[in-house]
Amino acid sequence: MMYIFDLERLYFVYLEYMKPNINKHGLSRYIPEDIKREIRKKSGFGCVICGKGIYEYDHINPEFNDAKTHDPNGITLLCGQCHSKKTRKFLSRETILEMMANPVPFVTGFVNESMDIKLDENLIIKIGAAIFTNCPIPIVFKGKEVLKISKPSDGSTNILLSGIFFDSIGNKSLIIENNEWKANTENWDIITKGGELIIKNEFEPFLIMENDKRNILNIKFFKTEIGNMKFVMSDQGIFINNSRIIKEFIAENCQIGMMIG
């Protein structure tokens, strides 16, 4: 059987299909990863207006339809709410340009976002190959409570998660306070993508966290180093100074799940 294609018609069908994704100059909405990284660093890794850590890339100067290139100096990060305000004319372009010059994350020193933690159930915390259930303090590392679970003082049944994470040189990189995470804007890069929070230095990630189920906090990869001790937790096990000490670990119904150092 022979098929005869009308190439001209196929071309116009292709243009119609691609229309939402390209502008009048033929520029695709896809922003190269190296330019995205530059935009994140310029914006402080969060919405320049409010500092929220879940964001969208938005062409401001010029608007996307008039842009001929993806210029990182004219693109910024806006959270969904601020982007909606801009679209509905409740947030002016002039204000956004002013905030691009002095993003809120650089003023506060961190980006933040709430976590969805299910109520009335024991929270399961997975860190690499380790699972902690009903452990108020899952990990103590070098005398510091890396994670802690508590309930509000008002007697409600909400589960509150708090913790401190350190980068490879011992500086605080991420603070979780009562289900809200705050990431230090001095980190090399902070990425929120596909339900994941990824914090990385110049060379590699040191924290990959996922919160896709309300009663399970999944930390896929965690690395920290304080003093002369490097501590890594991944799906391959638990490592200290590059030597695996535990392949799998489960802690249930205990005050402290694991104490290292």
TrEMBL record:
Nuclease among keywords: yes
Keyword entries, A-Z: Endonuclease, Hydrolase, Nuclease
GO molecular function: endonuclease activity; nucleic acid binding; zinc ion binding
KW DNA damage (keyword) present: no
Segments forming domain HNH nuclease: 34-84
SMART domains reported in the protein's UniProt record: HNHc (SM00507)
Lineage top rank: taxon: Bacteria
Alphabetical list of InterPro entries matching this protein: HNH, HNH_nuc
Protein name: HNH endonuclease
Native source species: Chryseobacterium polytrichastri
